[in-house]
Amino acid sequence: MRNIFTICGKEVKSYFASPIAYLLMSLFGIIFGFMFFSTTAYFVKMGLQSQMMGRQQPMSVNEFVIQGLFGNASVICLFLIPLISMRLFAEEKRSGTIELLMTSPLHDWEITMGKWLGAMVMYLCMILIAAADISLLFAWGTPDWRPIATGFLGLIFQGGTVLAIGTFISTLTKNQIVAAAATFTTNLLLWVLSWVSAYNDAAWGKVVAYCSILTHFEPFSRGIVDTKDVVFYASAIFLGLFLTTRSIESMRWRA
Amino acid sequence: MIKVEGLTKRYARHVAVNNISFEVGKGEIVGFLGKNGAGKTTTMRVLTCFLPPTAGKASVAGFDCVEQPIDVKKNIGYLPETPPVYPDMSIQDYLAFVAQLKGIASAEIPKRVNEVMERTSIGDRRATLIGKLSKGFRQRVGIAQAIIHNPPVLILDEPTSGLDPQQQKDARELIASLSGDHTIILSTHILSEVEQSCSKVIIINAGEIITMDTVENLHKRRSGTEMVTLEVGGATAQAVRQKMEEVRGVARVVASTNSAGAVTLEVEGMENFLVRPELAKAVVQSGWSLLEMRTVGASLEEIFLDLTKAEKKAPVAEESK
User: Fold this and answer.
1) For an interface test with A, which of B70, B86, B145 has the most A Cβ atoms less than 10 Å from its Cβ?
2) Residue B206 has pLDDT above 90, yes or no
């Protein structure tokens, strides 16, 4: 465990020693902040209108604001995560520091876990901004905190999955741009897979749609923690990290 | 301490190292000598468990490089050709990070970091980002990370490549200072470095070991003739040359007068003749002053070129002790 935390700590320091952490947090903050502001402003306007029209039941902030915001956040993350994962191994391979890790008394899986956890910490710092924005709603309203908690749990699962895929892709190249582009393309593909179910009811269509990352996120944003979604994300994370470890091992044979 | 038996490494169809065998004893400094692409780095990478061998066995400190890689890595300090440093870390943070990776207890780390910084003379730059250091300093940081866990075996891949002459000298002195505590293998294509630092030389060419011997034996082995330079005062060049040519066992004499007015001679003896005593006697008996006399071996450069001339020579792995 010590080796994992050593590598994780070094990764986190590296993110914050370069502009990448601040850039990612700023980008996420600006885009999510704008969406949060727009959605909240629209909700307030609609709430006033419905009151004036004599509607008895108040509008739910969870349903009209938070659920949509989590959907937006998950899509923003799909686009930003390649920027977190691109450097994990590509940079080490380019600069030759991978030799330090691979000739130190470490297991390959410890390197994988350390890198992935480091990237997860960076990702968590990014989505903390969303938490800060959403916490403002508690100042002027009484949203149900449970769907918010499950929404963040979903974001963590989804981010973990995409980061595991990105970490694996980063082991395949020395070029960070190539790693980012390949991860971005894979994410995009895993996102649009769900569209297949719109026009194909056959069994294979359902299987393809099941593989979409966003399909499994939606229940979390509605406050539902379904075992099948948790199993999907856990399996995908395990597969990504397993492939990363195999890829590190294969570097020895391919070097 | 290091044992390699029938080691072969192939990359697809290219054979980088072909059936090499050698042993390195405790405390020895061995120079791994060869042209670029001769197989030096590949051999070192196998020894550090960075690459697996295609065939053969390699062991370090009694641990097999394939079967017990973690134990091997604990016993090795490795400096690759490009120092594996992170430019965005300070020297101190980087060394602490490496110390943790190498398994040093947390309480020991600050002490070990200070020790290696002192030993490699980088302590006064401890807070500087590695990205801002000169190449020479980065090399020192690379050596510092290799010795931080005080490993019994050090493997240094071209530790002085790309350094200026002063930095090369410093690096050589640093390596020499490590020799007592560690078994060291260093690869290089700078021959003078081997002469100055190493007790034993392994010359490798096209993936095969051509020879393995001490530097001294290599000099002797090249030819049985003795080359001597002399500086003689109080005589003319012509007179000294004539006198030297008469000495028994002398094959060839080249004489010239230097700027200080003394005569400088290069004398080549006949095979298996020890000419120095006779030369000294002749100078003294003639009433001249013998200002200097020293033997000149063939340079390692010539030996190396001789040995590596035939590209596809059959491997002759021999050792004369």
Assistant:
1) B86
2) no
